[in-house]
Amino acid sequence: MTQPTPQPIIQLRGVTKSYGGFDALRGVDLAINPGECTCVLGDNGAGKSTLIKILAGLHTPSGGQLLIDGTEATLSSPRDALDAGIATVYQTLAIVDELSVWRNFFLGQELTGAFGVLKRAEMRRICSEQLTQMGIDIPDVEVEAGNLSGGQRQVVAIARAVYFGARVVILDEPTAALGVKQSGVVLRFIAAARDRGVAVVFVTHNPHHAYLVGDHFTILKLGRQELDAPRSAITLDELTREMAGGAELETLSHELRRG
């Protein structure tokens, strides 16, 4: 028997966003499903940041529809997004380097007892257990986060979002500043979060990283949706070609050869 297609947690239908006379998004359609990694690709100025801000509740669309669990919704603030189970992990703001790993894990969600006293031992234990269960190798959660690698800092932030109930985790260029080994740490954890049923939105300009973990791919260019395809319908070479400019690049190549 064919399994029913799960209802998307988030759907965008013809979403636009304008700032004065500038159109940052021009009719974007997107379905974000549980247990899938949706990759949003594009160069600088493509509209990726605007899309993130809409999903994170920082900006509201100028037009189109945003649906959550099949019902039209408005995300007017980051609190609205968090209440809907949507967590955003930003590339540079995910972790406080001067705090320990366990303090970062519970940042803003600290466990307290009588008179507001922090339950330090319990938080350390939970943090250590959760990181181990999620396949993250950090033996000492007392260490300052600034001593972790870039990849480890990213996965601690992602693990925190998953532990506190995020159904959708939006990752803003998590591998952009990382080397191959550290990127591998993040990509493995993205796959692990997806396999736990979390919907992952992986925003990146790197088609090679996207193709390693992606189930669905959207390419934005100057606010327009240039491509929207499942993994089964596109190869890495095709994704890379589309990301690099597709037909425009081919035309330029012909012009240069004639010269």
Structural commentary:
The chain has 259 residues and is an alpha/beta fold. It is 35% helix and 24% strand. It is built from 9 helices and 10 strands. It has helices at residues 48-55, 78-83, 101-105, 120-133, 150-163, 180-195, 207-213, 236-244, 247-258; strands at residues 10-19, 22-32, 37-41, 63-68, 71-72, 86-89, 168-172, 199-204, 216-221, 224-230. Helix 5 runs parallel beside helix 6. The longest helix is centred in the last third of the chain and has 16 residues, at 180-195. The chain is globular. The termini are far apart.
Short description:
This protein has 259 residues and is α/β, with parallel strands linked by helices. The protein has nine helices and ten strands. Strands 6-7-8-3-9-10 form a six-stranded mixed sheet, with helices on both faces. Strands 2-1-4-5 form a four-stranded antiparallel sheet, with no helix packed on it.
Which structural class is indicated by helix and strand composition?
A: alpha/beta
Low-confidence stretches: none
Tell me what portion of residues adopts beta-strand conformation.
15-25%
Tally the helices: what do you get?
Answer: 9
The first-to-last residue Cα distance is: 58 Å
Tell me which oligomeric state these chains represent.
Answer: single chain
Outline the biggest β-sheet.
Answer: 6 strands, mixed
Order of helices and strands: EEEHEEHEHHHEHEHEEHH
How big is the Rg?
Answer: 20 Å
The coarse silhouette is globular
Helix coverage percent of residues?
Answer: 25-40%
Whole-number mean pLDDT: 90
How many beta-strand segments? Answer: 10
- The main sheet orders its strands as 6-7-8-3-9-10
